[in-house]
Design goal:
homodimer; 195 residues; mainly alpha; Tetracycline Repressor, domain 2; 2 domains; 10 helices; 72% helix; DNA-binding; DNA-binding (chains A, B); Homeodomain-like_sf (chains A, B)
Chain lengths: 195, 195
DNA sequence: CAAATGTCAGTCAGTACTGACAGTCAAACC
DNA sequence: GGTTTGACTGTCAGTACTGACTGACATTTG
């Protein structure tokens, strides 16, 4: 990423996010962060006061968090495969956008209060949406009627697992090997839930 | 856990495992580990030489690693639901037994060389076994024939996700909420893969 | 007695964070 | 146009503390 045109504040936030997500909060020094941002350590402290506050600022600034509910009510077409695809895609999009923040919350749970909750808010929302979707689909007779909570949970867990797996192996963005997984996983669920 | 009867060496290893899995390698001091073990810091260094070596020793001592392949060839009964249950159970048993080591490898990836690979060895093995199982089942006409790799991968990812989810929420052992998930997830796959 | 452990003082390197001072640069003012 | 001002940044030396690790000597325990 070319950060040279950003303000110094943003450069620091991004550098912090990159480094801390890789090596953990205690694994990175303020000196390193400043160097990575092409600035002096002094500037870091002048802008943020402390290392903690720097990380919190990074979190606030770069934690993407739009509302989803309305979005879904418009987009669902009440066809199982199409809608599952929408859910999968939305899930991975959210997770990938917050990928680094997510990694930090995994590694440094103890360090930041309430971090985990915020990071998991959207996935939880998605789970709710999917559960309700399954219930409605059953009512419409378009799906077998049995344990929608667990079915939704299973679907989400599958995607959660795949995302985490992705985090480890190829640390770069392109969810290239994710795509065939998404396709197949949807086929499986569609076949299992069809009435 | 009552560690009072163990040798001092084991007490240190367990204390290290407990603390580091919660707060990360850099988040725990040697002093804390020693205190938690009810011993002096000096003893820690006398026994292990360094903090790194302590962790490595803990890993070697408490990373359960029996072979699985033979085990499976004996236990599989070639009935989809029963065998999927066996795979699920084995998976969660392995993961839970290595739970703390696994958490450390998540948090402190960078710290330990080759940690991740060792931790993931058994899950990978399981994936292979399951893939081959699916292939054979297709050949026998007991399962639809289509993309066994991805189907196995999806199944494993689902369980991986559930395991990770478990790690976060209730930090204690009893995989109580895991059980209904396992049941339902197997139903789903059995229904999806039935010919 | 011998092996294991504790105590305590101390070394050494790192690390978050500060203060004093100086340079740059663009806008504002004369 | 030249000067001043103010916001921002850098340098450097330094403080205060932490944390891994050591050595000398005393104490416990089987």
């Amino acid at each position: 990423m070319d950060t040279s045109k950003l303000g110094s504040s943003d450069r620091l936030l991004l550098a912090a996010l990159n480094l801390i997500s890789e090596r953990g909060y205690n694994g990175v020094t303020t000196m390193e962060i400043a160097k990575a941002a092409g600035l002096s350590e002094k500037t870091l402290f002048r802008q943020f006061g402390s290392k903690q506050k720097l990380l919190e600022a990074a979190f606030d600034r770069y934690h993407y968090a739009e509302e989803m509910k309305k979005l879904f009510n418009e987009k669902l077409v009440w066809k199982l495969e199409a809608d599952l695809l929408l859910v999968s895609r939305t899930y991975h999009e959210i997770m990938n956008r917050n990928r680094k923040i997510f990694q930090i919350s995994l590694k440094d749970e103890g360090q930041l209060p309430g971090f985990r909750e915020r990071t998991h808010k959207h996935p939880h929302q998605l789970l709710e949406i999917l559960t309700n979707y399954f219930i409605t689909m059953s009512d419409k007779g378009k799906m077998i009627a049995a344990n929608p909570e667990m079915q939704a949970f299973s679907f989400m867990m599958m995607n959660y697992g795949a995302f985490q797996n992705d985090l480890d192996s190829h640390k770069n963005y392109p969810s290239i090997s994710l795509e065939p997984f998404i396709q197949e996983s949807i086929k499986i669920f569609a076949r299992a839930l069809r009435p």
